[in-house]
Design a protein that fits this description.
The protein is mainly alpha-helical. Helix content is 66%, strand content 0%. It has helices at 2-7, 9-39, 47-51, 54-80, 100-103, 115-118, 122-128, 130-160, 168-172, 175-201. The mean pLDDT is 91.
């Protein structure tokens, strides 16, 4: 068990942080929701009622979809674009999908390579792009979840104001939906750009997301 935890410490740490922050969000969200309910003359709800409501679901889903979009785009864009001096980038001249020899694929696969890396046809093609495919699917699923939960929450507000509810197509083309969506997207894109650029000139000793302390600023694709 100790070895399992040590070997997977990074993933376990972030999963624990995820659960703690989700629990905190649910508690704070329930309190804020009940304050609004009381201010509007409604009745407060229990924590269990809140975390199973469309209001909580849409708040969670809209953050998930923006995160998965960030990673999906970053995985694909860094195949073709480079940033001189950044450890988050490949070196200039290495743009593109690279050869089978460089990727240890097909007849260049090693004994410990995954079976699908050495396979032929569609299996190797799918495996070669499996990370991007899964991240793209997770983005689409979380975006769909946001749209469905957001529709329910939006229509609840519409009915509370004695206004007509809208359909799914009407909601996903509404200002409310795109306001929620774009405010998350812009923050993710800014965070990625900041990381790419700041890592050129700043260091974090021992981190694989940073260059070595003594590397020149122009050094690209170096990690410490």
């Amino acid at each position: 068990m100790r070895r399992l935890v040590r070997d997977n410490a990074l993933a376990l740490c972030f999963l624990l942080l995820f659960l703690l922050s989700l629990a905190g969000q649910s508690a704070a969200g329930a309190a804020a929701f009940n304050e609004e309910q009381v201010a509007d003359g409604g009745s407060p709800v229990t924590w269990a009622e809140y975390v199973t409501s469309s209001s909580f679901a849409v708040d969670v889903a809209e953050n998930w979809q923006s995160e998965y979009l960030q990673f999906f785009l970053y995985i694909l864009i860094t195949v073709w674009l480079v940033q001189r001096g950044s450890p988050e980038s490949k070196k200039r001249g290495e743009e593109g999908l690279e050869s089978d020899a460089e990727q240890k694929a097909g007849r260049y696969a090693e004994p410990r390579s995954p079976a699908w890396a050495a396979a032929t046809g569609w299996r190797r093609t799918v495996f070669s792009h499996s990370l991007g495919i899964v991240m793209g699917l997770l983005f689409l699923l979380s975006w769909l979840a946001q749209s469905v939960a957001g529709l329910a929450a939006y229509n609840n507000e519409q009915l509370a104001r004695l206004e007509d509810p809208v359909g799914w197509a009407g909601y996903v083309t509404s200002p409310d939906f795109w306001n929620r969506t774009l405010q998350n997207w812009q923050s993710e894109f800014l965070a990625v750009a900041s990381m790419v650029l700041l890592a050129i000139f700043l260091r974090e000793r021992g981190s694989p997301q940073s260059k070595k302390v003594g590397d020149p600023h122009s050094e690209t694709a170096s990690t410490g």
